[in-house]
Amino acid sequence: MMQSEAPRRPVREPVFNLPGAVLAMLLALGAIHLLRTLVLADETDLELLLDLAVIPARWTLALDAGRAAEILSAAGEEESLRSALANYVVTGGGAHPWTGFTYAFLHGSWTHLLLNGVWFAAFATPVARRLGALRLLGLAAACAVAGALAHTLVHPLSVVPVTCK
User: Fold this and answer.
1) How is residue 160 annotated by DSSP?
2) Three-state DSSP class for residue 158
3) Are 39 and 134 in contact (CB under 8 A)?
4) CB neighbours of 118 closer than 8 A, spacing ≥ 6?
5) Closest CA to 116 of 93, 153, 144, 157
6) What is the DSSP annotation of 88-135?
7) Could you tell me if 86 and 159 are in contact, meaning their C-beta atoms sit under 8 angstroms apart?
8) What is the DSSP string of 127-140?
9) Residue 7 is assigned to a structural domain of this protein
10) How many CB atoms lie within 10 A of CB 91?
11) Residue 105 resides in a domain
């Protein structure tokens, strides 16, 4: 006599089919932006931005301190925000080399974060599956630093903080 098999349940696909490293990065980016927009006071957020975003003129000054007058001149009129940023950069201390990495965690708006997140999920997923989580994170860090260097080479006198593009 033949035994009948129990009916099989249909296989369900997961709602999120992202590798763990990609999902963790997206959640971290969202948490950071949530903290910046809902928790931090405006003054604290500005300090965070100035300490963690790439400011190309700051890196330019670290390599050639003689370009301070050129940076101030490029900033323009005396009473502008750009001029105030230029004064801050020229009188502030050091290159802040960590910003070549940390700026990648900052976004200008929720739309900016959403669009970057969609593209990151689309392109990082196959890379994570191919390389693994640690190498994906290493590649992401290297790309962030390369982007900061490229932006600084193209706009060496800019005092506008750069967040993840």
Assistant:
1) S
2) coil
3) no
4) none
5) 144
6) HHHHS-S--TTHHHHGGG--SSHHHHHHHHHHHHHHHHHHHHHH-HHH
7) yes
8) HHHHH-HHHHHHHH
9) no
10) 8
11) yes
- Note down the domain range covering 128: 24-154
What is the distance between the alpha carbons of residues 117 and 109, in angstroms, rounded to a whole number?
12
Please answer whether residues 56 and 158 qualify as being in contact, where contact means their C-beta atoms are separated by less than 8 angstroms: yes
* Count of the separate structural domains present in the chain: 1
Strand, coil or helix: 72 = helix
The residues pairing with 162 across neighbouring beta strands, listed in sequence order, are: 54
pLDDT in tens, 110-155: 999 999 999 999 999 999 999 999 999 999 999 999 999 999 999 9
Q: Does residue 83 fall inside a structural domain?
A: yes
57 burial (CB, 10 Å; 0-12 / 13-18 / 19+) is buried
Taking the C-alpha atoms of residue 68 and residue 55, their distance in angstroms, rounded to an integer, is: 14
User: What does the alpha-carbon distance between residue 81 and residue 75 come to, in Å, rounded to a whole number?
Assistant: 9
Structural domain contains residue 165: no
Q: What is the pTM assigned to this prediction?
A: 0.82
* pLDDT, tens digit, 9 for 90 and up, residues 67-111: 888 888 888 877 788 888 888 888 886 778 899 999 999 999 999
